[in-house]
Structures are given as structure tokens and as C-alpha cells.
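Issue 218. Parser rejects a valid record. Input:
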Amino acid sequence: VAMSASLLRRGLELLDAPGQGKAPPGPQRDGPRAAGAARRRKKAPELDKNKATIKGRVVKSAIEEYHKRKVVNHLSANLRYMLKGRCVANKAITEQVLAQNRGRKSKDLPPKKVAKKKPEGTVFTEEDFLKFEREYFGRP
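Output the parser choked on:
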């Protein structure tokens, strides 16, 4: 299997222990160019690590990516949170809040509550009905 040079370099950098794997410094040169190159080498040692990256893109750990994308079940924590607070608000206050948040259109209005009519008790007794039946229908 062919590996690109950047992948190979990145793998070696990950496996490389700090302080090992670097070539011993070569012969020192005198002159302005040598001094500038030495300054550049001292100035940015962390840039040598990410040569294979694109415009400052950081190399991410596969394990960190896995843990970040791993699905977490929040059910138990959410249930504990919801069941923890047993404070029930006043009915009048909740109605007031709902009324404030409700729109003014007719479709947003709640259905009107129909007042339940209580069955009225009759004035007549069973004997009165029997008496009326005898008189009206002529039954004995």
C-alpha cells in the first residue's frame, strides 16, 4: 500500500519521542544568511511539526474526534432534572402567561368552553305522572 510522504511524516512525528529523531546540527556557517536561517529555526520550532497541514489546519487526534462524535444518551440526566423540581405554578399565573403568548388571530384563540347545564329536577313526582296518565288516557 502506497503512503504519501505527508502521512508517513505525520506518523513518524507521532511515534517520535521528544528529543529523539532530530539530526545533529551541521557545521556552522558564518554570514548574514546563516544567522537569518538560524533565527528562523529558533523562532518557529512548532511550525516544523505541522508541515503536512493546509494553511494552519491543526492535526486532530482520531480518538478525540471519535469521542466528540460519539452519540451520548442524555435520558437519565434529563429525567433527573425534570423530576427534581416538583414546583407547580399557580393556575391563574399559567393562564395569564398563556394568554400573553397567544396570538390575536382567531385560529390562535382557545376553544370557548361551553357551560355545562345541570339537569333540572322535576317538580312532579311519580305519582303525579301516574295520575296524569290515568286521567288523560283513561286507564284505571
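Fixed in the parser; the record now loads. The chain has a mean pLDDT of 76.
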